C-alpha cells in the first residue's frame, strides 16, 4: 500500500517536470508553425507565458497559470512558449525574453472608424503578482469593446440592412456589454459584425419578438431574416453557432483596408532606398544577387530559371506564413560593391539574408536551387548556424549614365 502511494507521487512529479502543460489544459503550446497565426495575427486578446521547464519560478507559476487559463476560457486565448525548445528560440529572441517566466499580453489597441476592426496589436508586459486572479483581471482589462451599440429602431434598420456581412445582435438587460460578447466581437472581427440592443429599446425588442434576455440573433449575409440562437449562453455554444454563419477565418472580410492579394513576382531592387526598405522593414530580407545581361540569350534563359526558383521560394514562404521577403539585385549592373561588402562568392547567383534591425547577415554557401535555399532558410529560421554582423550601410553601385556625346 505504502509503496504504491509513494511510487504514484513520484511518477506524478516526473511527468509534471517534463510536460508543463498538457492537452487537457486550455493552454496552447506555441511553436514556429503556429506562432504567427495564433499570437501575432490573432484578433483576440492573447495571454502568453514564456518559460523554461527547468526554471523554478515557472514551476511555481504553472498551477496559477492553469487556473487563470480556466477562468479565461472563451474570453481570451492563453498560450505558452517553451523557450528552451531550439525551434522556439528565434521567437523568444525576437520578443526580447531575458528571464523566466515572462508573461505578456498581446492585445488590440484601438478600433478603426468602422468601429469593428482592431487597427493595431500591441504587447504589454504583465508585472503583477504571479497568481491567477490578478492575471485574469489584467487580461480582461485588455479586452476592448468593439460591439456596436444600437439605440433606436432606425439604427437597427441601418445595421440590419447592410447585408454585405453576417451580423449578430445581443439583446441584453445588462448595463455593460458582457465581456464574453466583447471577446466574441474580437474573435469574429472582420467576419461577423456584432451589435447590442438593450431591453429598453422596446420597439426593436418587440419587432424581433424577443422575450428573454440575453438573446442572440444572427442575420446571415445577404439576408435580413433573423435566426435565433437557442443554446446555452456560453462561449462554446455561441461560437459554434457563429461558425455556421461566419465566413472562414482565412477569408476575413477586411473593412476599410483591402487585403493585398499575394503577388508571386519577386521584385528587383534597383536603388538604395528599395534596398533599405527591404532590409529594415518588417520581416527578414532575402536577396538573390544574379547576373542578368539581357543582351545575351543564354543569360536571359538562366535568369528565367533563377526567377522561377525565387518565385517558388516566395510562394512556399507565403503558404507557411514565413518571415522572409524575397528580392533580387542585378549583380553585374549594380551589385559589385554589395558583393564585396557582404563577402559573396565570386560567381553569381548568390543568396543571402540581411536583417537591418539587428544589423546581421548570412550568406548561403549551398546550391542555388529550391531545395538548397529552402534548407538554408530553414536553418536561419530555426536559429541554427551563425549570423555575421555588419556596420557599413549596404549600398548599390551608382550606374554612371552614359553621356549623350560619348560612345
Ligand atoms: C431598411 O430596409 C427596409 C426594407 O427594404 C426599408 O423599408 C428601410 O427604409 C431601410 N432602412 C434603412 C435605415 O436603411
Ligand atoms: C540569424 O538571423 C535571423 C534573421 O534575423 C534570425 O531569425 C536567427 O534567429 C538568427 N540566428 C541566430 C543564431 O542568432
Task: Describe the structure concisely.
The protein is of the alpha/beta class. It has helices at 2-18, 35-40, 56-72, 89-94, 132-140, 153-161, 179-187, 202-207, 235-245, 272-280, 297-319, 331-334, 336-341, 370-381; strands spanning 28-29, 46-51, 77-82, 102-108, 121-125, 148-150, 166-172, 192-198, 215-219, 226-228, 267-268, 284-290, 324-330, 350-355, 360-364, 388-389. It has a 6-stranded mixed β-sheet with strand order 11-13-12-14-15-16, sandwiched between helices.
Describe this structure in words.
InterPro entries: Thioredox_PDIA6_C (IPR057305), Thioredoxin-like_sf (IPR036249), Thioredoxin_CS (IPR017937), Thioredoxin_domain (IPR013766). Residues 1-19 form the signal peptide. One of its GO terms (molecular function) is protein-disulfide reductase activity. Pfam families: Thioredox_PDIA6_C, Thioredoxin. It is a single chain. The strands form three sheets. This protein has a six-stranded mixed beta sheet, sandwiched between helices. Strands 1-3-2-4-5 form a five-stranded mixed beta sheet. Strands 6-8-7-9-10 form a five-stranded mixed beta sheet, with helices on both faces. Helices cover 35% and strands 20% of the residues. The protein is α/β, with parallel strands linked by helices and 407 residues long. The model is unreliable at 1-17 and 251-259 (pLDDT under 50). β14 (350-355) and β15 form a beta hairpin. The chain folds into three domains: 17-140, Glutaredoxin, CATH 3.40.30.10; 148-245, Glutaredoxin, CATH 3.40.30; 267-389, Glutaredoxin. It has 14 helices and 16 strands. The site of one 2-acetamido-2-deoxy-beta-D-glucopyranose has 4 residues, from α6.
Amino acid at each position: 500500500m505504502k509503496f504504491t502511494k509513494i511510487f504514484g507521487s513520484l511518477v506524478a512529479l516526473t511527468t509534471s517536470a517534463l510536460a508543463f502543460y498538457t492537452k487537457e489544459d486550455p493552454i496552447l503550446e506555441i511553436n514556429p508553425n503556429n506562432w504567427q497565426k495564433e499570437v501575432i495575427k490573432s484578433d483576440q486578446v492573447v495571454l502568453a507565458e514564456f518559460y523554461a521547464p527547468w526554471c523554478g519560478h515557472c514551476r511555481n507559476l504553472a498551477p496559477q497559470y492553469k487556473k487563470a487559463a480556466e477562468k479565461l476560457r472563451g474570453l481570451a486565448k492563453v498560450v505558452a512558449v517553451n523557450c528552451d525548445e531550439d525551434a522556439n528560440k528565434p521567437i523568444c529572441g525576437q520578443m526580447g525574453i531575458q528571464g523566466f517566466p515572462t508573461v505578456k499580453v498581446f492585445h488590440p489597441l484601438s478600433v478603426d472608424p468602422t468601429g469593428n476592426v482592431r487597427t493595431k496589436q500591441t504587447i504589454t508586459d504583465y508585472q503583477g503578482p504571479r497568481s491567477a486572479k490578478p492575471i485574469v483581471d489584467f487580461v480582461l482589462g485588455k479586452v476592448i469593446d468593439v460591439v456596436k451599440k444600437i439605440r433606436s429602431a432606425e439604427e437597427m434598420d441601418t445595421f440590419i440592412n447592410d447585408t454585405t456581412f453576417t451580423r449578430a445582435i445581443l439583446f441584453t438587460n445588462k448595463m455593460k456589454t458582457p465581456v464574453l460578447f466583447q471577446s466574441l466581437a474580437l474573435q469574429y472581427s472582420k467576419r461577423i459584425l456584432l451589435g447590442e440592443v438593450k431591453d429598453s429599446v422596446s420597439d426593436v425588442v418587440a419587432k424581433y419578438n424577443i422575450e428573454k434576455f440575453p438573446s442572440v440573433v444572427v442575420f446571415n449575409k445577404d439576408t435580413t431574416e433573423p435566426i435565433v440562437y437557442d443554446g446555452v449562453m456560453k462561449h462554446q455554444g455561441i461560437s459554434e453557432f457563429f461558425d455556421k454563419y461566419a465566413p472562414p477565418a482565412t477569408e476575413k472580410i477586411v473593412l476599410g483596408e483591402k487585403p493585398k492579394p499575394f503577388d508571386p513576382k519577386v521584385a528587383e531592387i534597383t536603388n538604395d532606398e528599395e534596398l533599405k526598405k527591404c532590409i529594415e522593414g518588417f520581416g527578414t530580407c532575402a536577396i538573390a544577387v544574379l547576373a542578368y545581361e539581357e543582351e545575351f540569350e543564354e543569360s536571359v534563359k538562366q535568369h528565367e530559371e533563377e526567377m522561377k526558383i525565387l518565385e517558388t521560394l516566395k510562394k512556399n514562404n507565403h503558404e507557411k506564413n514565413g518571415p522572409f521577403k524575397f528580392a533580387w539585385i542585378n549583380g553585374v549592373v549594380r551589385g559589385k560593391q554589395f558583393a564585396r561588402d557582404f563577402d559573396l562568392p565570386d560567381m553569381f547567383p548568390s543568396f543571402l539574408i540581411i536583417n537591418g534591425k539587428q544589423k546581421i547577415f548570412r550568406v548561403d554557401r549551398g546550391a542555388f536551387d529550391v531545395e538548397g535555399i529552402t534548407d538554408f532558410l530553414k536553418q536561419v529560421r530555426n536559429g541554427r548556424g551563425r549570423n555575421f554582423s555588419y556596420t557599413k550601410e549596404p549600398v548599390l553601385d551608382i550606374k554612371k549614365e552614359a553621356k549623350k556625346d560619348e560612345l
